[in-house]
Amino acid sequence: MTKTLQEIIDANPEAETFRFGDGPKLCAEILAMVRNGAKTATCEAASAYGKGGDAWPEVGRRDVALNWDGTPALMIETVEVTTRRFLDMDHEFVAAQGEFRDLEHWRASYEAYFQRAGEFSPDMKLMCERFKLIEDYA
């Protein structure tokens, strides 16, 4: 039986919901990488969190990643949260993100992503999260 989002949230009231990426194609690609174990980390502009934004990830909290259409895709559990500036990103964290060839590819891709959101700066603060897959709703 497929679980509804409401059933998942009722069972996990502390869970936040979110979407990976900024469009349906990227969202689906990233969800596939989480499912196959290639992606165990992500980052976002720190400015996306807090007042008027998403809740800051917390170690041990389980959150629900949504398909682009808003249906539940999978549940992850945060295992580490750190902050760093865009220009301080390192190869090891980029590798854990799964979708980039190297640090230069990460820089070009994330610079474009943040520019689409209208907030790129080389010294911008990033929330860097490591997670593990708990449940796949596919």
TrEMBL record:
InterPro entries: ASCH_domain (IPR007374), DUF984 (IPR009326), PUA-like_sf (IPR015947). Signal peptide: none annotated. SUPFAM superfamilies: PUA domain-like. Pfam families: ASCH. Residues 18-135 form the ASCH domain. This is Uncharacterized protein YhfF. It comes from Sulfitobacter guttiformis.
